[in-house]
Batch of 3 targets.
Target 1
Amino acid sequence: MRALQISNQVTIPLTEIEIQAIRAQGAGGQNVNKVSSAIHLRFDIAASSLPAFYKERLQKLRDHRISGEGVIIIKAQRFRSQDKNREDALMRLQQLVRSAAVTQKQRRPTKPTRSSQKKRMDSKTRRGHLKSLRGKVET
């Protein structure tokens, strides 16, 4: 694998993705202390060969994995093996870039129908009447 496939026309060369093996956090005994199985992935959006459309959309994303300088930082430590964590980090980068390309359907504002407004008001009146019956009984 020399490139990360985003779509039919768009790929990211692996030379643009900086992958570094680090020690994982959390429980795991001696394995955690000795082996660098976690992966720290860095991908600079501005310096990449992605089309301008993808770059703009990624920069606009409000995602905690994208730093202020426009660098995507992904830390993968789900698995115990370095290879699986590397694959996981690349898959998460792929999903993030793909999600930036998806355009949300424009919402068309609508008004509630007259019958739905009437139903709502009737139910509120009924509920209010029921609550008024809960008062003290006069003798």
Target 2
Amino acid sequence: MKNGTSLGGYGAIAMNAALTTSMTQLPEQLRKTLTWDRGKELSGHVQFALDTGTKVFFADPHSPWQRPTNENTNGLLRQYFPKGTDLSRWPAEDLEAVATAINNRPRKVLGWQTPAEVFEEQLRSLQQPSVATTG
């Protein structure tokens, strides 16, 4: 028995659908590349790349240093959900609350800004008109 609605299932098809929805909401400049590990859930990466225009790169096997933000985020998520937790058993509101908490937690690597603050700065900088330079 599930505690809430399904979040789209598990596997490559569900991952592509969810990731495509999320990525296409971002400005094009912020969705140029995605580095992924070698999990089977991104086996549909070719279709994802075609649908979003995002280039997909894969980390080498057993090379977590090639995706440090992912590894750090996994560690933060483990504070809320033990490894192997079936997230479909959690209501979407609870998952969103965890995402909000993590995205509003200051990070040393960001000069003690939060990921949400850095993301907002990026969005604002994309909305600034560019100025041509000479020289």
Target 3
Amino acid sequence: MQSNDFNDAIASMPLIVSLRGIQENEVNDIGKVLIDSGITVLEVTVRTKNAALSPIDDNAIRSLNKLIEAHGKNVHVLAGYRFY
């Protein structure tokens, strides 16, 4: 989707689905189900223990990239950040 369509996407479906702990092999199927259900904004949460000292969750980054490759033309894909 074009970045300037984000406001329209939120206006038509005021819901962002946050995918926490999604595995790389699940992204295509889950993304398709959500898109087919009318969801227009998906977010993959990237976790880290400490932003300054811990590496970012590599699985989340791979999942995020795969989601963008598979469905980025149909929905807005966001990256969220969570400390634990």
